[in-house]
Structures are given as C-alpha cells and as structure tokens.
Amino acid sequence: MQQKLERQEFTLEDFLDQMQQMKKLGPLKDLIKMIPGLDTSKLDDIDFEENEKEMAKIEAIIKSMTKEERRNPSIINSSRKKRIAKGSGTTIQDVNKLLNNFEQARKMMKQFSDMQKHVKKGKFKFPFFK
C-alpha cells in the first residue's frame, strides 16, 4: 500500500479494500476508542451510526462501478454516474461527492508523498529555518 501511495497509484479499489478491512476490525466507535491519548468523553457527541451508514453508501457506490472505473475514475462521465447511482441506490450527487472527495484525498496523498521524497533527499527545509 505504501508503495502504491508513493507511486500515486491509489485507486478506488484500494480505498474499498481499506474500508472492508476497517469493517472487519469492528464498529467505528470501538476503533476510535483504541487510539491512544484520545479524549473519549467527547465521543458521545458523534453520531457513529450515521458515519457507518455513510461508509455503507460509499461501499455500494464503489461496488456499482466497473473495475476500469475503479482503477481510473476520470473516465466516469454523466451517463456512467447515472448508472452507478442507480446500481447503488444513491443519487448522482452522492456519486459526485465520492469522486470529488476521492480526488482531493489523492491530491493530498501526492503532496505528502512529494514532501517525503524531499525529506529523504535532504532538500526539504522549513521556510522559517535557515
């Protein structure tokens, strides 16, 4: 997975695999409680049921895509979005939201990957240190 991130080859298939692995670990609330140093008293304000429903919706959307669409989301046009939404029991807006969020996550991973490369080469310097 780390190599895929470094080569910027993270796909919706990889994302789906990660979600399914998280589901195997148990409910989201229990997973978050395992994070060391986290103030669990504030967890009562979070609607974990709603978050799990959202994850199920995302999973349904991704599973409604073809393998090619999962590997290369840029090929998804309006007619494909309509088919995916119909197949997953969601709306086109939900499909758009997932695709936009995934693309933002990919860009962020690319930035972290680029930053990591510069740190390894010794070229990365904080702007306020000289």
Automatic annotation (TrEMBL):
Any one GO molecular function term: GTPase activity
Ranges where the Signal recognition particle SRP54 subunit M-domain domain occurs: 9-109
Superkingdom, taxonomy of origin: Bacteria
GO cellular component, one term: signal recognition particle
UniProt entry keywords in alphabetical sequence: Coiled coil
Gene3D superfamilies membership: Signal recognition particle, SRP54 subunit, M-domain
Pfam entry (one): SRP_SPB
Name the record gives this protein: Signal recognition particle, subunit Ffh SRP54 (TC 3.A.5.1.1)
Species whose genome carries this gene: Caloramator australicus RC3
Residue ranges that the Swiss-Prot or TrEMBL entry lists as coiled coil: 5-68
SUPFAM superfamilies: Signal peptide-binding domain (SSF47446)
GO biological process: SRP-dependent cotranslational protein targeting to membrane
